[in-house]
Design brief:
Blueprint: E1 6-9, E2 12-15, E3 22-25, H1 27-49, E4 54-55, E5 58-61, E6 77-81, E7 86-92, E8 97-102, E9 107-112, E10 116-121, E11 138-143, E12 149-153, E13 158-162, E14 173-177, E15 179-180, E16 183-184, E17 191-193, E18 199-203, E19 223-227, E20 233-237, E21 243-248, E22 254-259, E23 266-272, E24 279-287, E25 302-304, E26 310-314, E27 317-321, E28 327-332, E29 339-342, E30 348-353, E31 356-361
Antiparallel strand pairs: 1-2, 2-3, 4-6, 5-28, 6-31, 7-8, 8-9, 9-10, 11-12, 12-13, 13-14, 15-16, 17-18, 18-19, 19-20, 21-22, 22-23, 23-24, 25-26, 26-27, 27-28, 29-30, 30-31
Length: 364
């Protein structure tokens, strides 16, 4: 039995008395403890920095020009999951974060390398207190030329501006536009902002509770619109059955619009007629009609890089067109893709992929 004795163990001194035990550590012992703590901390940080994600899909090369766009061994990795339907990815370079919508959840999430997926903003697309079904959240996201977040709000049926800084998000919105000639929009879907600050967007019926048969539908068509800097809303075309993804090619003289209509699964191209607020020379840029059976997805969201290479959501994944408009390859994934976003250096592609968000490191 030990009583009122002093024991020397591994350079630390344990003193036992009738009073509670107290432990005294020598400087050498403290040195070793700190050393071990630092090693464990560095190991933990290394694990976080080298977090392993699950890989899914593959790159399919259809033309030699693909080699300058994406490496043959690039593989999509799942960086976020658990969404109902992910949409509208937007890379914020200065914050090194990806924003994306979950339309049914009425929520915008953000993803960072350090913290993964986090709630960024809710509600994001429907702010009324009256409960309703359908696709209510935000969909397409963009930054205006002042760095403010622009949203297509399916539930509120408008193009809106988040009235809060990007680093302090709040569900406070300013209406940019919600109607054309007195007729309320269907459910704005995808959005882009030109170098002049003009806003282009598509307006399919997907956010209406009963779709095309919804009694609240006011326009007799599904439009593609432009909002001028004065706030005036211009109808650019009403001839596309299900206008969805939208993008301006470099130089902003050509507009591409995706049609998510299974009967006409095409990407359409239009020439922008100078300052006349009209489109000319309507044509099919590319059609997915006759592609492989059983592939998930339809022509949807798109992004174009500074070289003019196009990344377009379509059946089976992302279709990649070179700057000449030739199909160069595909990023094949099993789930339906809705849209994509490029990193600031355009070496990484982020893809919203149904319940997932994917990252493809295209080049080093």
């Amino acid at each position: 039995m030990v009583s009122s004795e002093t024991l020397i163990v591994n350079h630390s001194r344990l003193t036992t008395h009738d009073s509670p035990l107290t432990t005294h550590y020598s400087p050498l012992n403290l040195y070793h403890m700190k050393k071990h703590f630092i090693i464990l901390l560095l190991a933990a940080l290394a694990v976080c920095a080298n977090k392993k994600y699950q890989f899914v899909g593959r790159v399919e090369k259809l033309d030699p020009s693909l080699d300058s766009i994406i490496s043959a061994d690039a593989t999509p990795e799942i960086i976020a999951e658990g969404m109902d339907w992910s949409e509208g990815p937007l890379w914020i370079e200065k914050s090194k974060m990806l924003l994306f919508s979950d339309v049914p959840q009425n929520t915008i999430y953000k993803w960072t390398e350090q913290k993964g997926k986090e709630v960024y903003l809710t509600p994001s697309g429907y702010t009324d207190t009256v409960k309703r079904g359908g696709e209510t959240g935000s969909n397409g996201l963009a930054l205006d030329n002042n760095g403010h977040l622009v949203l297509t709000q399916c539930g509120n049926r408008q193009i809106a501006l988040m009235d809060a800084p990007l680093d302090k998000p709040a569900a406070k919105f300013k209406t940019i536009a919600n109607a054309y000639k007195g007729m309320k929009f269907n459910s704005p879907n995808d959005v882009i902002v030109s170098s002049k600050g003009e806003i282009y967007f598509t307006d399919p019926p997907y956010g209406l509770e009963k779709g095309m048969k919804d009694p609240k539908k006011e326009t007799p068509f599904q439009g593609v619109y432009k909002i001028k800097r004065t706030g005036e809303v211009i109808l650019l075309t009403d001839s596309i059955a299900r206008p969805n993804g939208i993008v301006l090619l470099p130089g902003e003289k050509t507009l591409l619009v995706a049609n998510s209509d299974p009967a006409k699964p095409n990407w359409y191209a239009f020439d922008i007629a100078g300052t006349t607020d009209s489109l000319t020379n309507a044509r099919i840029f590319y059609s997915t009609a006759g592609s492989e059976k059983g592939l998930k997805g339809l022509p949807d969201g798109m992004k174009v890089d500074r070289m003019g290479n196009l990344f377009a959501s379509g059946p089976g994944g992302i279709w990649i067109f070179n700057k000449a408009g030739k199909l160069a390859g595909k990023i094949r994934v099993p789930e339906a893709t809705s849209n994509c976003s490029l990193s600031g250096d355009e070496k990484t592609l982020y893809i919203t992929n149904d319940m997932y968000v994917l990252r493809v490191k295209m080049r080093k």
